[in-house]
TrEMBL record:
GO molecular function, one term: ADP binding
Family annotation (InterPro entries): AAA+_ATPase, APAF1_C, Apaf_helical, NB-ARC, P-loop_NTPase, WH-like_DNA-bd_sf, WHD_APAF1
PANTHER family on file: APOPTOTIC PROTEASE-ACTIVATING FACTOR 1
Protein name: Apoptotic protease activating factor 1
Lineage: Bacteria, Pseudomonadati, Pseudomonadota, Gammaproteobacteria, Thiotrichales
Keyword annotations of the record: Apoptosis, Hydrolase, Protease, Repeat, WD repeat
Amino acid sequence: MKPAITIDKQSIKTQTILDENGNKIAVILALNQFDELLAKIANLVNQIEEIPAKTGTPAQTSPSRSNDKNALPFQITLLQQHHNTLNQVVEDLRKYDDLNTELERKLQVQRLIKFIDTEQQTIRQQLTQVKKDTLSATLYQVPPLPSSLNSHNPLFKEVKTHLLAKAVNKQKPPLVIQAPSGTGKSVIAARLARDAEVQHTFPDGIFWLSLGKDSDLLAHQLAVIHLLDETTTNVFDVEEGTARLRELCAPRASLIILDDVTDAQDVLAFNIESEYSQLLITSSEDKLADILQYFINTTKGYELKPFTTEQALHFFFQCVGEKIATPATVPIDAAALVRACAYLPLAIKLAANIARVQPLSTWQTLLDNFQDKTTEFPKQYPLSLMQALQLNIDALGETADYYLALAVFIDYSHIPPHVVFMLWRYLYQLRDEESSKFINELTDKALLHRNETGTTQYFRLHSFQHDYLCEQAELEKLHNHLLAPYRRQCDQHGWVSGPNDGYFFEYLSIHLHHAGRLNELKLLLLDYDWLNNKLKATNIHALLSDYEWLDDKEVNLVKETLHDAAIVLHTHKTELANQLLDRLWDNPAVKSNKDIQALLNQAKEASPNWHWQPHFQD
C-alpha cells in the first residue's frame, strides 16, 4: 500500500505581493517548492486513478456493512470530483511554462492556491456529511451513567435539539448547562454524549474534559489534539493550542464537553468556532453563560431546575428501595426530607444512603439533622448537599479516615487506583482486597465515582466532595504520607530512580511543594537526571509545568532555557543535554553559580562528545 500523499498549504513557503492598498494580489513560490508541489499533485492523480480499479463498482463491493454499501456510491462520486479537480490543477500547472513574464507566473500560482482552497472546502463539507450518515462517534473519558437515573428531564430534549441543529452563519454555538452542584448537570451531559443521534451528529469523537479549579488548560488541549491528530504538533502555549484546535475541528464534526467549568476564560481556550464541531459546558457558576456571551455572542445558556416534589419523592424511594420503605410505610414526612435536601438529586441520593441502612425508627433523627442549619460549610455549595456529605462521612465510622485521605490528590477527576491502594496500604495496612471492598462501598453511596477508558480504570470525586475533604484533612501531612511509600521504591539515587507508573513522574513536584519540602524540590529541578527521566516518561510540557511550583532565581533560569528549547525537545528528547549545554555553557550569569554548573556538568557527562559552538538566537 502506497503512503498517503498530502498537500499542506502551510508547508508552502511563499512571499506575498501587495497592491498599493496593502491587499494580497500574488505570491512568489520558490522553483524547487513548485516542482515538489507539481510532483505531489501528479502522485495524487495517479493514486486516485487506481481507486476505482481496487474498489470496484457498488455492485461488486462486499455488502458487509449496510451503511458502507449505501455510502459507497457517494464516496466514489467524491473521489471522481477530486480526480477531476486535480486534473484541472495539472492542466493549469502545465500552462505555467508557457507564461512569458514572471508576474504572470506569480498570478497563476495565486489562482491555483485559491482554486485548491475552494475545492478543499467543498470536499470537507461533503466528507463530513458522509461521516454523519455512516459513522458513530467514539467516546473519550465520558463517565458512565449512574444506576439511579431520572431519564425524563425536559432540558435533555431541549439541549439535544440544539446539538443536532445545523450551524447558523457557519458556526455552532457553545451550549452552557448551569445549576448548583448536585443538580445533575454532568449526568445530563453524559446522557447526551451517549445518545445515538448525538453520536451520529459528531462522528469524529466526543471528548469529555473535567476542568474544575486551576485546571491545566494546555494539557487538556494537547489531549484532544493528539486524539484528533496522531502526528506530533508544536504547541507550547494555550493560544497556540486554541489555534490548533480550530484548525483540526474545521473539517471535523466533534463534540467537546467541558465539565465543571468555574471560569469563562477557561472556555475560551476551547473556542473552536466551527461549522460542524461544538462545545457543551456544565457549570455551577450561575453567571457563566452571561459572561461567556460577552466573548462569544452566540452562546446559549440553559438552567437545570431541581426536582419537583413528586420527582424528588419518587427518586428518594427508588434509591432507598421498595423493600425498605414505600410512601405508605415511611415513618416520617418524606416530603419534608426532600425539601430539606433542596430537591437536589445528589443530596437526596446521599440522604437515601443513610436511610437505607438505618432502622425506620431512627429516620426522624435523619430529618432533624437535615433541618438543622447551624453548621457552617463552604458558601459556594448548597447547604443541604454539604450536610448530606458530612452525614455520609460520619456514617463511615473508622473508615472515614480512608476517605479523607483522598484529599491528597490534586487532580480529583482522575485518581489512579494503584496509588490509592499504595497510600492506604502504607497508612492503614489495608490489603488490596480490603481496599477494593471499601471502594465498592464508596461508589455504591455516590461518594466516589469509577470511570474506565479502555483497559484503564480511575476514580473521580465531585468538586464539592474534594473541597470538603481538603477542609477536613491535614493536607501537608497527607502529602508527606504519599511521598513516603514512593521514596521506598527509589534506590540510593533518590527520586530520579522512582517508578514510571503513570503518576510518580507526573505529580512528584506537586506533592513536594504541598508537603513544604521546597529545598528538596529545588534540588530536583536542578538535577539533570531528573529532567532527563521525567522528559522520557512524559513530555516537555509536563517537565515545564514542574517549574511553576517554585519561584527561585536558578530554577527560573533553567525553566526559561527549557522553554526556549521546547520546539526541539518536543520531538527529540535525547537532545536535552545538548540543548542545556548550548544555551547555558557560555552564559556569564551562571559561571559562578554552583547549582547551574553542577547541572551542566551532569549534562556534559551525558553528552561527552558535545563541544561548545556560538549560539545565535532564531
